[in-house]
């Protein structure tokens, strides 16, 4: 997928051949673990370096966020006729349609009320989205198109009063998967809700990304019907799997929970808000 995009003028990491003529090789590494030498195999590859500023290292203004939406839509268009066996992995933990993984861990949630809320989200997603998969355009999706995985550069030619950064590349295709394209949009919308500046309304802020996307590839009626439910499902997925991670890795609790409070508040807000109201806010109307 990266090689394909790099030949179509997208600034993405490109795998390079190693000394054996492969783009990936299985290499054995040794390490010390509790005084014992442990040997494990790892898949190793070399990717080209990309210059730019991580989007997460700056505050993306609404115009820059609009540009990120445009970029995702262009990716989707470029990948329209692309496929690869590695994209088809229905059991991948972070696959948005893989609700069974989320449902398996609801018991780790702190209260019965939270468990009921998560059950409601999963049931609505199954009823409103999974039942309509044939109505949704599918294809390769990045599935983690947040500010930590995009590169930007300062815009020097004719910047508008609020436009400072322009997207110039995309990183980390590790979550790439074949799914409805609207899933990709929903994942990004939630991310930008969670990272909105304090002075911005999170839903309105993320809407700039959506409007940029729609300027290139307008959502279909079916995609609009399911978008809200996809955003809520992603919030629920992140919340539950983060709580699961804390339960099995308590020593990493501080790191895992650093953004959990805002995630939980966003999830509750989305669940308690009418779909029509969220759609309206994202459209800026």
TrEMBL record:
GO molecular function, one term: hydroxylysine kinase activity
Broad class of where this protein is predominantly found: cytoplasm
InterPro entries to which the protein is assigned, alphabetical: Aminoglycoside_PTrfase, Kinase-like_dom_sf, Pseudomonas-type_ThrB
This enzyme's EC code(s): 2.7.1.81
Keyword vocabulary terms for this entry: Cytoplasm, Kinase, Transferase
Domain spans labelled Aminoglycoside phosphotransferase: 3-219
GO cellular component, one term: cytoplasm
Superkingdom field: Eukaryota
Transmembrane intervals: none
Pfam families associated with the record: APH
Subcellular location: Cytoplasm
PANTHER family documented for this protein: AMINOGLYCOSIDE PHOSPHOTRANSFERASE DOMAIN-CONTAINING PROTEIN-RELATED (PTHR21064), HYDROXYLYSINE KINASE (PTHR21064:SF1)
Family affiliation: Belongs to the aminoglycoside phosphotransferase family.
Biological role stated in the UniProt entry: Catalyzes the GTP-dependent phosphorylation of 5-hydroxy-L-lysine.
Name of the molecule in the record: Hydroxylysine kinase
């Amino acid at each position: 997928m990266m090689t394909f995009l790099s030949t179509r003028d997208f600034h993405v990491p490109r795998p390079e051949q190693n000394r054996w003529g492969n783009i990936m090789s299985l290499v054995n590494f040794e390490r010390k673990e509790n005084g014992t030498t442990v040997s494990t195999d790892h898949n190793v590859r070399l990717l080209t370096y990309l210059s730019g500023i991580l989007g997460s290292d700056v505050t993306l203004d609404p115009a820059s966020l609009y540009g990120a939406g445009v970029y995702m839509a262009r990716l989707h268009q470029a990948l329209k006729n692309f496929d690869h066996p590695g994209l088809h992995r229905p059991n991948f933990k972070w696959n948005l349609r893989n609700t069974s993984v989320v449902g398996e861990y609801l018991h780790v949630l702190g209260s019965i009320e939270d468990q009921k809320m998560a059950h409601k989200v999963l049931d609505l997603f199954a009823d409103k989205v999974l039942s309509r998969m044939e109505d949704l355009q599918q294809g390769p999706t990045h599935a983690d198109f947040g500010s930590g995985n995009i590169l930007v550069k300062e815009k020097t030619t004719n910047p508008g009063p609020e436009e400072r950064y322009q997207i110039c590349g995309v990183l980390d295709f590790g979550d790439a998967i074949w799914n409805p394209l609207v899933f990709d949009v929903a994942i990004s919308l939630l991310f930008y809700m969670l990272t909105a500046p304090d002075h911005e309304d999170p839903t309105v802020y993320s809407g700039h990304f959506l409007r940029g996307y729609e300027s290139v590839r307008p959502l279909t009626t079916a995609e609009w019907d399911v978008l809200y439910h996809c955003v809520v499902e992603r919030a629920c997925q992140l919340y539950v799997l983060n709580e699961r991670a804390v339960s099995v890795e308590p020593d990493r609790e501080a790191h895992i929970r650093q953004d959990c409070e805002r995630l939980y508040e966003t999830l509750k807000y989305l669940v308690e808000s009418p779909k029509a109201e969220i759609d309206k806010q994202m459209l800026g109307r």
